[in-house]
Amino acid sequence: MKRKNILQMVTLLILGLGVLFSLVAFDNPYFWQSKQLVEISVIVREADSTSWATARQGMEQAAADLDAELRFLTLNSPDSVKEQKDLLAREVDGGAKGIVLVPANPQQMQQEVQDATTKAVVVTMESDMAESGATACISVDNRKMGEALAGKALGRLAAGDDVVLLDSAPGSSGVSARVDGAERLLKAAGCNVYRYTLSAGQNLSSLITKAIATQRPAAILAFDTAATQQAASVAENTENPPLLYGTGATNTIIASLEQGSIDATAAQNEFAAGYLAVEAAVKAVQKMPAPDIKTLTYYLVDRQNMDDADNQKLLFPVTR
User: Fold this and answer.
1) With 76 labelled, which of 88, 176, 302, 306 sits at a CA distance of 20 to 30 A?
2) For the chain, percent helix, then strand, then coil, each to nearest 5?
3) Are 97 and 151 found together in one domain?
4) 306 pLDDT exceeds 60?
5) Which of 46-60, 61-75, 144-158, 302-316 shows the lowest mean pLDDT across its residues?
């Protein structure tokens, strides 16, 4: 009798587990859907990914929090519109549900972004492409950032001083807006402004070297991370280097700030920017309410304030 009761209990347990499994596996499709990762491709406009290291940390944190799978893609040649177009089409055709794009040239990529948005969600960083169907743009107010950087430089400049502006990404509407903002403010203050624009196939280092040798400026302003890092490198090997005001907060830029090669940098919270970009893409793919995305805040960081608590959090973000 005892053995019979045990067999009945085992049988009931097996039946119960079978029913539970069938309920979960077949009657609740969300059980399986919750395990599927949202594929997000990140396409930047640079060939070197080091300038995106902090933003990538934010993206990876968002991917971990939101069950997404990231593919981070750089170009073989920086700001190559053709290569970026090809990558965008390839990722969409390959099944990516969301794209985070840093456009090399928004005007030249309008059609490709429009085509991509028929199959996938596109979120841009730095340059707004809402008119081409992009869901959101994660960026600072670029013109105001440029004006703020110029205002910082004017603290050590006078009317009549020569100033070089590095337009290192002329196809990027975001970077160009920064240059425009700074140029307006510097000219209004009476400075002689020289805008050096990087042309296709030109080496950034040679452009900066030429600008210093030709103009012998009192100051150079750089408006993206790559240009800032390169300008600092050139300045370190120049006798009587100009003042340097840049953009970004990579480890290289922080070290140059500490050493005095860079006088100040305009920096946004790159970790937060990366997180918000992936979050916006994932939620749009899942047709969930969009995150509350506002224009990102930027900060002017120099040797005097870089040890402030808020700036330390900005320069050295910690992932959870």
Assistant:
1) 176
2) 50, 20, 30
3) no
4) yes
5) 302-316
